């Protein structure tokens, strides 16, 4: 039987598969057909003649990984990059800087494409994004080439007052934000061949009234949708929920029906032992924001959460999109908490969090997250032909301890090369940067005026 004609063949790299049965392949040959991995093996003298393909890419000196899965980000918040990190609190709660309710549709379009492009160039092949004008930004980000799960933030609080300490819940705001999210899901979820999807983005326990949280849980159940939220991210949130409901935020989400294994909750920093046990019993996915939280002088109790049963994945959250850097921070802050280097908190631990654990949080573990025959061909090539990545005695150790997103040379999504030689193939990166710069300047001018 003749060898098939593949769409793409990659030869020569080291492959970190993310598959625990065969975690690393040296001098690999990867063949792709119809957007999926069709063959993955080490090259040998007995391999026979070269595989026939419409295109062959030879990548010696590179390390290939599964596409990185960023389960919690806000592409538009590059608008406060380099500023919000030093204010000590999330942008939505901070006066004097651009706020989501200030962003126009055109500005959201331009800025979100900058954030999505950054994520793609740094090796993320899927982002789970929430912010504003999701109907506009979702297809705009997907056009760049990566998989985009997106949803407008769902809340019934009037955000124009939150940064000033005014908490006013308005039914009309909740009606609109929830319906917009359900409309987006009806448009894309299950209809885009896993290129675009929706998780209902309940913003946070303190920005959603208790009756509204129940409505979101009911809507998610009725529509068969997963939910993403911020949870126990600040002392303000804890105090607000304690005053309003006389319970903790995890208790509240449990009470309204949102604390379950279809929830991805970012942060989970300020949690008691009882909260941790509750979170673990529910088996939620925790989006560990290792770098962002540490920048704000906080660390999530990752070891306690994992031991209790929570599933840890990784997200970049605000201001940057480098998942390689997030892996490194997750490894480091975890060891700081333990005060030791342990066998169960190693580079492979955080690598799994950035790949397969992220795929599970998105409900896509059978489709992406590892390089295995039959899965969708999402992968990233890091250029290890550089002094800081030499020698490659332990490629995974180099990746987590030394590499950066800037070392990404090539990115494929569904077998399509959407980044080559570190540049996007679908869009003009310089144009995206210029348009986003202009939009952000306009926003800052208005914010200063306020």
TrEMBL record:
Alphabetized GO MF terms: hydrolase activity, acting on carbon-nitrogen (but not peptide) bonds
Domain Amidohydrolase-related: residue ranges: 63-418
Keyword entries, A-Z: Hydrolase
Record carries keyword Zinc: no
Gene3D superfamilies registered for this protein in UniProt: Metal-dependent hydrolases, Urease, subunit C, domain 1
Record-stated family: Belongs to the metallo-dependent hydrolases superfamily. ATZ/TRZ family.
Entries under PANTHER family matching the protein: AMIDOHYDROLASE-RELATED DOMAIN-CONTAINING PROTEIN (PTHR43794:SF11), AMINOHYDROLASE SSNA-RELATED (PTHR43794)
Name of the protein this chain belongs to: Amidohydrolase family protein
């Amino acid at each position: 039987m003749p060898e098939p004609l593949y769409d793409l063949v990659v030869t020569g790299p080291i492959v970190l598969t993310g598959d625990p049965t065969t975690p690393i392949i040296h001098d690999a040959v990867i063949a792709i057909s119809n957007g999926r991995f069709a063959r993955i093996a080490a090259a040998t003298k007995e391999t026979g003649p070269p595989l026939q393909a419409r295109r062959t890419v030879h990548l010696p000196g590179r390390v290939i990984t599964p596409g990185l899965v960023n389960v919690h980000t806000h592409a538009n918040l590059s608008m406060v990059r380099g500023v919000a990190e030093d204010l000590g609190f999330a942008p939505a709660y901070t006066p004097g800087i651009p706020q989501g309710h200030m962003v126009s549709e055109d500005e959201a379009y331009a800025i979100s494409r900058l954030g999505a492009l950054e994520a793609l160039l740094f090796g993320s092949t899927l982002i789970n994004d929430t912010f504003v004008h999701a109907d506009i930004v979702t297809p705009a980000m997907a056009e760049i080439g990566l998989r985009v799960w997106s949803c407008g933030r769902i809340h019934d609080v009037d955000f124009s007052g939150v940064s000033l300490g005014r908490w006013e819940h308005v039914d009309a705001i909740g009606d609109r934000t929830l319906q917009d999210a359900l409309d987006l899901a009806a448009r894309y979820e299950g209809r885009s061949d896993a290129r675009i999807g929706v998780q209902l983005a309940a913003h946070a326990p303190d920005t959603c009234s208790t009756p509204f949280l129940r409505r979101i849980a009911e809507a998610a159940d009725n529509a068969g949708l997963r939910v993403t939220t911020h949870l126990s991210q600040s002392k303000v949130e804890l105090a607000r929920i304690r005053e309003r409901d006389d319970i903790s935020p995890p208790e509240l989400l449990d009470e309204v029906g949102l604390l379950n294994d279809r929830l991805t909750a970012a942060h989970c920093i300020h949690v008691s032992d009882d909260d941790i046990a509750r979170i673990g019993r529910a088996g939620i996915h925790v989006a560990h924001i290792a770098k962002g939280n540490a920048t704000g002088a906080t660390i999530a109790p990752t070891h306690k959460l994992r031991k209790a049963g929570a599933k840890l994945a990784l997200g970049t959250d605000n201001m940057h999109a480098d998942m390689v850097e997030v892996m490194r921070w997750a490894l480091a802050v975890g060891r700081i908490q333990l005060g030791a280097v342990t066998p169960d908190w190693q580079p492979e631990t955080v690598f799994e969090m950035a790949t397969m654990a992220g795929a599970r949080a998105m409900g896509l573990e059978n489709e992406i997250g590892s390089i295995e025959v039959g899965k969708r061909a999402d992968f990233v090539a890091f250029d290890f032909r550089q002094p800081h990545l030499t020698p490659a005695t332990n490629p995974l150790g180099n990746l987590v301890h030394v590499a950066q997103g800037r070392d990404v040379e090539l990115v494929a999504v569904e077998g399509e090369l959407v980044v080559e030689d570190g540049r996007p193939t679908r869009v003009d990166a310089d144009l995206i940067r210029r348009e986003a710069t202009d939009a952000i300047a306009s926003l800052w001018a208005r914010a200063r005026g306020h």
